[in-house]
Structures are given as C-alpha cells and as structure tokens.
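User: Can you predict the 3D structure for this chain?
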Amino acid sequence: MITKTVRQNAVKVLFVDDEFIEFRALKKKIADLSEPAVDVEYSPSLGDALEKIRAARFDLILLDNRLLPNADFRETVPELRGIGYTGPIGVVSTDISGGYFQEFPDYGVDFRIGKDEIDVQTLQHIIREYVNYDVPDFWKDDYSI
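Assistant: Here is the predicted structure, written as structure tokens:
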C-alpha cells in the first residue's frame, strides 16, 4: 500500500540565479500557485546559496546553469552536494540542448528544464515528482519529511 505524504507547510524553494530579473519572472509566473503553497527564496550567487542552505532547510533548489565565476552545473552542483544538501536540484537554463546536459545525473542533478518551460503546471509537476513522495507504509518508520 502507498501512502501519500501530506505536507503541512509551504514547499521551500531556493532559486539561484545571478540575474534578479529571472527571479522576478519566476515569481510572476507562479503567483497564482496556491496548491501546494510555495515559498520561493532568491540567491544571486553560489556562495549566497551555500550560506542559505547551511542556515535553513529547502525542499527544492532551482539552479541557473551558468553562475559567475563558476562555469556551469558541473562545478556548482557538486558544491551544493558537498555541503550535504540531499534534496532535489533542477538546473534551469535558457538553452538545455547542449550535449553536456546529458551528463547531468553524473553531477548530482535531478532534472533540467528550460527557463521558458517553467509555469504553474510545471512547478506543480516538479513538486509532485521530486518533493512530495509516495512512500510505502512499511517505510514510514524510516522516512519522514
């Protein structure tokens, strides 16, 4: 039997992008999202994101592919994983067609998505797939959100 985990609080999302306008665009796109409740926090750099992750719990990280001075997710995601973040990380990019995007699982990335693809329905789907897990009853003692 599968038990649906019911979330009591808002889903905490950390959006990491060196372009603040991208954060504003995301907030505008998901303004109508009420189920589940989502609390999106912004980080302009990898260093700032690392500090926020050390200080608070996030259910999901949406990470811009290119953050200066780092080259791309192949450098940034291992740093996030290196401080112990085990939650889902999605790489967000204007163009996800590059061949190196096929390597994303090797670097600890859970999914990749184009910036133009993010909307209310997509974010709801991502949360259902990566944050709200269906857990078998016999795992309930070992697993809690």
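Helices lie at 20-29, 46-55, 73-82, 120-130. The chain has one domain: 2-131.
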